[in-house]
Each structure stands twice: as C-alpha cells, then as structure tokens.
Amino acid sequence: MVKAQAMEALTKALGKENVITEAEDLLCYSFDATADMPSQVPDVVVVPQNINQVVEVIKVAREFKLPIYPRGSGTNLSGGTIPLQGGIVLSMKGMDKIVEIDADNLVAVVQPGVIIQDLNNAVAPFGLIYPPDPGTVATATMGGSVSECSGGLRGLKYGVTKHYVMGVEVVMADGTVVRFGGKTVKNVTAYDMVKLFTGAEGTLGVITEITVKLIPAPEAKKAMLATFESLADAGNAVTEIVRSKVIPATMEIMDNVTIRTVENFAKIGLPTDAEALLLIEVDGIPEVVEREAATVIKVVEKNKGKIKVAKDDKERDGLWAARRSALPALAQVKPTTVLEDATVPRSRLTDMLVALQNIAKKYNLQIGTFGHAGDGNLHPTILTDARDTEEMKRVHQAVDEIFKVALELGGTISGEHGIGIAKAKYLPLEFGEQGVDVMRKVKQALDPENILNPGKMFK
Amino acid sequence: MVKAQAMEALTKALGKENVITEAEDLLCYSFDATADMPSQVPDVVVVPQNINQVVEVIKVAREFKLPIYPRGSGTNLSGGTIPLQGGIVLSMKGMDKIVEIDADNLVAVVQPGVIIQDLNNAVAPFGLIYPPDPGTVATATMGGSVSECSGGLRGLKYGVTKHYVMGVEVVMADGTVVRFGGKTVKNVTAYDMVKLFTGAEGTLGVITEITVKLIPAPEAKKAMLATFESLADAGNAVTEIVRSKVIPATMEIMDNVTIRTVENFAKIGLPTDAEALLLIEVDGIPEVVEREAATVIKVVEKNKGKIKVAKDDKERDGLWAARRSALPALAQVKPTTVLEDATVPRSRLTDMLVALQNIAKKYNLQIGTFGHAGDGNLHPTILTDARDTEEMKRVHQAVDEIFKVALELGGTISGEHGIGIAKAKYLPLEFGEQGVDVMRKVKQALDPENILNPGKMFK
C-alpha cells in the first residue's frame, strides 16, 4: 500500500479529482486488452491535466520509490500497461488537447490523451489524414499508439506510427523535461531520440506532447475481394502484386478458419469454402486507382483467384466490415483469444501460413489466421480457454514455435503489438543476449532507478 | 605515435596490405569535405575486408586505448570523420559488396563501403530505386550516408536516409556484434535501435551491414523552372503548391547571388535579374505527372512567377545541371566556402530567406543561398577566405545568428549535414543542456570508454 504521505503528496499536486483510489475504480487499471496475462491492481491512478503535474507525479514516485505505469486507453496487446508491481498508474487521458493543426506544414501537435480517430476527424476538413490505422483507432490514444508504435492496415503503402512521429516532448525519469524533433521534414541534429521514444512502451520517459506528420487524403479508393482455393496461390498473388509495382493501401488476408467464423458471425456472404481470401484496396488519384485495380485483377486471375470489385461505397464498407469482424468473430468462439503478430518478409508469407496450419495440427489447437499480408504481418489467433490448463500448455508451446518459425523465415517476433510482458522472454531469440544487453544499457542509462513501467520488455 | 605493438597487432589481424602508415597517405585522412575545420593526421588507417577484421581492430583499439574514427568517402559536411585525437581511422571502403537485392521484398542488403550510386545502378534493372539522394551520391558510401542520415533533393516526397534503413549489423565499442531490424516492413520488437544507429555519426557503433528499403522507380517525370521577382513570392509559391496537395519529388530554390554565380560559371541561360528561382520536379505515373504539373503552373503564375516546363530529357538534364552547379559555382568565387544547412518549417521559408539577406548585410558578407525549399532545408553558403582572420570572425558571428534565427522560426540547426565538430557547440541551443545530457547518457552507456569517434557531437 502506498504510504499515506505519498497519497497526500499526489493529492496536493494534482487535486483530489485527479487521484483515483477507490478499489472498484482501480480494478479497471489492473489489466489491458492482452489475453493470458497476470493482472495487478495499482495502488493509485493519477490523471494529470498538464505537464507540470506529470513532473510532480515523477517527483513523488522517486521520493517514495513507487513504480509508474503510463497508460492511454489500455487497448495494447502485449501486457504493456499492466501495473505489475502496483504503484502508480499514470493515465494520460486528462491531457487530451489537439494543440495545433498546421496544414501548411502538414503537421499536427497533440497531447498524448487525444484519441487517434479524433485527430483524423479534426484534420479531415483540411483534406488531410494521419495514416497510422490500428484496429483500435476509435479508442486508442495518440500517446499509447506512439509508445507502442502501432501498425495497422495501411503499413505497406503508408508505413506505421514511427514514420509519422516528428517530435516529442518527454518527461524523463529524473523529472527533467526535454523536447526532440519538431516540424521540419529534415532533422539530423544528433541522435534520433524521437524514434527512440516511439515504441519504447513508456519505459524510457513519459511522452507529454507529440508532433505528427499528416498527408493529403487520397481522392479515390477501390476495394476488391479475391478468393483462392489454396494458401499458396493467395501468398503468390500478394508477392506478385507488389512485384508488378502496385503498392496497395491495404492487402489483408483471412484463412479458411477465419472466413468461416466471420461468416458464421456476421452473415455477409463470404465464400466459406475458400482456402484464403484477400481484401485489397488501392487508393490515390482516380487515374492511378483505375490502373492499379486493373493490375491487381490481372495478377489475382493469373494466380487462380476469383476477384470481385466493390462497385460503390456501400459494397466497400461491407468488405471492410468483414475484415473488422475477424477478431471479434474469432473472439466469440472460445473464452480466450491469444492474438499474435509474428511478421515475416512478404515473400515468405506462404511459408508462414503453411507453418501455422501445421502448428495448429501438431498441437491440436484451433488457430484462425488473418492479418496484413502486404506487410507479412500475420495475426495467428489461437482460440482457447485460459481455465483449461492442459490446453494452455499446448497454446504456449504453439506460440513458442510460431515465433521460432517467424525468426527462421527472416521475420520478427513483433510486427505491431510490442513486447511488454508477453514477449519479453523471446527477445534474446531475435537479438541474442548481446543485442538485448545493448537495449538494456539504454534503459539503465535513462531510467537508472527503473521506475518507468518496470517489469516490461526485459526479463 | 601508436605503439609498435599496436601496429603489429593491426598488421597481424588485417594483413600488411590493409594497414596504411605512409605519411603522405595518412594526410588524405586528416580532413573531410567540411570547410573551416581543424585537421589532424591519424596514426594509422586500417581497411578491414570483413566484420571479423572490424572486431579485431576494436580489440586492438581497446587494448592500446586508441580512438577509432570510422570513415566512408569523407564527403561529410560537419567535420564528422576528422580524426581529432589521432589514433585509428577505420576506412570501411574495403567492405563494398552488395550482399543481396531482394526485389520481391523491395529490399537490398549492402556492406557499408558500397557507393550510393552503385546501389542505384544495381537495382535499376529491377525497376527499383533507393531514393535518398544527397549531392554526393556518386562518391559517398552507404555506411557514411546512413551514419550521417543524409538528406538530399527528394526529402519532401520521399523522405531521407532514415526512412529507408530497415536493418543494421553493428560492431559495438566492446567488440560484440549485434543485429537489429531486418526485411520486414513492420517491426516493433523493443527499442528502435536501427534508427538510433542511423545518424549517430559513428559514435555508438561501427555499422558493418545495412538493409535498406527500395521503391518502384517513378515512370514519368516533369521538370519545371519558375522565376520570381521577390523572395516572398517564391516562398509563398512553395507553401501553396503543397497546400494544393501536390508533393513534388524535388522543389529547389536559388537566390539571386546563387543564380548570378551559377550563370557566370556555367553559361546556361539562367535569368540573372530574377530574385529567386524554383526548380520543381513532379514524378509518378504519367497521368499524375500531367495533373500535378498543371497545378504547379497555376500556383506559380498566381504568385507572379514565370514558369518554363522542360520539354524533353535534354532540357530537364540542363535544369538539373544548373542546380548541381550551385555549390561548385559558389565555391570557385572565393577560397573558402562555409556551407550550412539550417532548416525551418516550410511555411517559414520566406522569413528565413529574408533573414539570411539581412545577416549578409549586417556582417558585410557574401552569402549565396540555395537548397531544398520543399523541406525548408536551406543551404546558406558564405563565400570567404579562411586566411582572412578578420572576415572569419564575422563569418562565425553570422553562422551563430543563422542558427539562432532557424531555431526561433521553429527549425533545427541541422537538416542534413549532422553535428560532428562543426555544430557541437550549438546543440544546447536546440535541446537545452538537459536534452543534450539525455543523448550523452546514451553515448556513455554504449561507448563508456569513449573510443568511437571521440570529440564529435558533444562538446
């Protein structure tokens, strides 16, 4: 339990209204969106309204040796915001202002509590978009998605969060406030600290302001649905579309398990006998869209796929509703949904899909796979029940093997969900102990007392 | 002088042919392309042929407490490769293999000694390009340009070097070998160490292999020359082109001093009475190029500019020859050319251009300004004579003021040349002592004995 003195200091600094101590309220901060994780109720949740209050929280934490767990909406998928050691949850949702939209420089400046979709709504009247597009765009915060370096559906053409973060203001573990980067497209002034804090999962500093790049909204879009009788044909089509110099805005895949589950859930007329389907969207100016769609159709047909082009916005929305149903549909099959994000080079997509089928068979598990085929970023989703200890043992073995295969194929253990608690043990597989040690040195240099999100990323 | 033992150890590890000790050879490594810098002859230059030899060099350096100065072609512009404390220059030009071109994944893997243009030549048959395009593309190495995070002419549309580095292999200061990143578009596995080593100027580790992203080559290009009677009109045209949702591949500016000097040097028919000119190139598929060119013409004319479209490749090449002549033309006016790269948000371009004119007047100096207008990345170029100590005093005052103004306008002290020796003293201006201290902690954590490129970046 936090000492009464610490609680008093927090209340004095932030006001009673920004300090949460009721047991039933604290419970909401004991977990995040990740399955199969330990939960832990924090001692206190604070909701600073400005940077000075963040600095004050850090001072109190240091004085009373309490860990700090920064948190946005808690939609993260690797256990990154769970307050493993109790202490203080630092909710950034009180700092939720869009500070500036600077259309001439194609940038926006936001506080960390801004919801991603709210930023997009605010820049839309300027004809601009903020491209990073994680599935949780309507609930996740900018601070959380920058700290986790969220990916999403548009990674292939538009990149991910780190490609759009131009500047950050950060409160360091010693309470000092620093700013790196800014509004200039070019900036090579010493180390790229902006990128170091992006994806650092709140372990190196607390982000209190973010400058992001915006881009002109594409004028036209065309969505297509391609179905295949074999995984290999689908995988080959993905590679060949890119080889044809068409970079779709999104190129999503669903395997048969996912197709059948989604259809059963949403009744939208998906072909349940298809072994795989691709949802492809090209965007840009109308001439480009026409041209690229024609290439996609040609490649899909060459690879023995059947393709259907959405003829209007309604059909397009229907296709994307199907894609967005994938996770909720799979999640309702069994009580526990273990969602992974192993990622391979695009050309190894077929190998990975086949390996996932074999792993499902080997461990006698139900695995539905969907994901961002254009990025080689798959979401094998194991449908299970956390209360079934025997099956969970097989789930853990299967997850181990999924990461092993992804690395063997030249991939990475996390394409877009981050490390948190869930993947800390796999880090040495990817980097060796020596590589992990390099990262640990950076952590120790910037947070020597280990007060920021302790217990995450490193075992 | 390096102890005989150290020299013996280096010769044993690398072979006599890869260890340079002749005084007249060493002299070539005592300086780089930066004007107005101290020079220092190293004790020895080594040219490792593989990563094991790099590791051996680090072992010797640690044993004999010798500093290591990694170097590519030495074309860098902030004194970054000058061996300030003598010791070992580590030339990476012996490791110059293109390891792999993986067209299906749109990536290439190269050793650090590969010349940028050689990579572009090698990927051209696949219809691909490596977009970063510094002025020294024909001579600079991949290792050097990654370590300096080179910019160039295509930053606005295509970004700079850091946007294309996907993976690195690095020998750390303690001799361990680590690999970060790889071929996957998405990768959020712990800290973004790839970006930390990119632009670290060889102070954190020695890069021995680089994985870079490639993109499809644009099918068509159109170059245009716009001339203006006022700097403000030119600056406003730049902002309005982007506001019209056209992102040109390049958008270069030259002021009147530069125009007259280039014309005098190259006799290519530039309008010597124009106050500013813009060289604009749009690229993409032919339909897009036509459409974007039409928008550019409309915006230029609205802003009282005259515009000429290159009607064929020959005229296009002529325009770019003019742009490429800017620095050599300015450089032949006076013995010393102090080239800066202060960068501001694009919307503040006119303010910066006017400020530069005023600074030239105030300090009674000849300053020609050209640069990447679309990025807000200007190259004010002071034409002077390093032997004229009185004038050099004014040059240094002018440079101080240039950076001060750039920061006041929300810019940065280095858009693309890096810090090295030249700008170390300005770092606290941008980040405060506390921000510099964060970076220094990272340096100390990864190179505690300060053997990698000592004397750079930090005062």
What does it look like?
- Chain A has 459 residues and is α+β, with helices and mostly antiparallel strands.
- Chain A has 3 domains: 4-93, Uridine Diphospho-n-acetylenolpyruvylglucosamine Reductase, domain 2; 95-216, Uridine Diphospho-n-acetylenolpyruvylglucosamine Reductase, domain 3; 220-408, 3-Layer(aba) Sandwich (Vanillyl-alcohol Oxidase, Chain A, domain 3), CATH 3.40.462.10.
- Chain A is 36% helix and 20% strand.
- Chain A has helices spanning 4-14, 23-27, 51-63, 116-123, 142-148, 155-158, 193-197, 231-243, 256-266, 286-302, 313-331, 349-362, 389-408, 427-446, and strands at 19-20, 44-46, 68-71, 88-91, 98-102, 107-110, 128-129, 165-171, 177-181, 206-213, 215-216, 220-228, 250-255, 276-284, 306-309, 336-339, 366-372, 377-384.
- In chain A, strand 17 and strand 18 form a beta hairpin.
- In chain A, 59% of the residues are buried.
- Chains A and B meet through strand 9, helix 7, helix 8, helix 10 and helix 14 of A and strand 9, helix 7, strand 11, helix 8 and helix 10 of B.
- Chains A, B: Pfam families: FAD-oxidase_C (PF02913), FAD_binding_4 (PF01565).
- Chains A, B: Belongs to the FAD-binding oxidoreductase/transferase type 4 family.
- Chains A, B: Keywords: FAD, Flavoprotein, Oxidoreductase.
Main attributes of the structure:
5-stranded antiparallel beta sheet, Vanillyl-alcohol Oxidase, Chain A, domain 3, 20% strand, homodimer, Uridine Diphospho-n-acetylenolpyruvylglucosamine Reductase, domain 2, Uridine Diphospho-n-acetylenolpyruvylglucosamine Reductase, domain 3, 7-stranded antiparallel beta sheet, 459 residues, alpha+beta
